[in-house]
TrEMBL record:
Transcription regulator PadR N-terminal domain mapped to chain residues: 19-64
Protein source organism: Bombilactobacillus apium
Protein name: PadR family transcriptional regulator
Matches recorded under SUPFAM superfamilies: Winged helix' DNA-binding domain (SSF46785)
Length: 89
């Protein structure tokens, strides 16, 4: 996949979440923290607290499972599309 397309996809995902609610990203981060999928490290920088998020093994497993599930979804869609093409012949 084109790297620019990947970057654009991530941007659109973030923008879509912000469109729903300005606090949606914080909700997602809180949920991932509660699940143990990410950790947070806080550091003070020029009297402001900065948060640095890092993925955990649980988060890596979530990605792996999502990709496996997505492959199944793609296979189903491909199967349906092939049937639709065959019906037109």
């Amino acid at each position: 996949m084109n790297p620019q397309l990947k970057k654009g996809l991530l941007d659109v995902c973030v923008l879509a979440q912000l469109q729903r609610s300005e606090s949606t990203l914080y909700t997602i981060l809180k949920r991932l923290l509660a699940q143990g999928a990410i950790t947070v490290k806080k550091q003070i920088y020029h009297s402001h607290v900065r948060k640095y998020y890092r993925i955990t093994a649980i988060g890596e497993d979530k990605i792996t499972q999502f990709i496996a599930d997505w492959d199944s979804v793609e296979a189903i869609v491909h199967f349906i599309q092939e049937g639709a093409v065959d019906d037109k012949s």
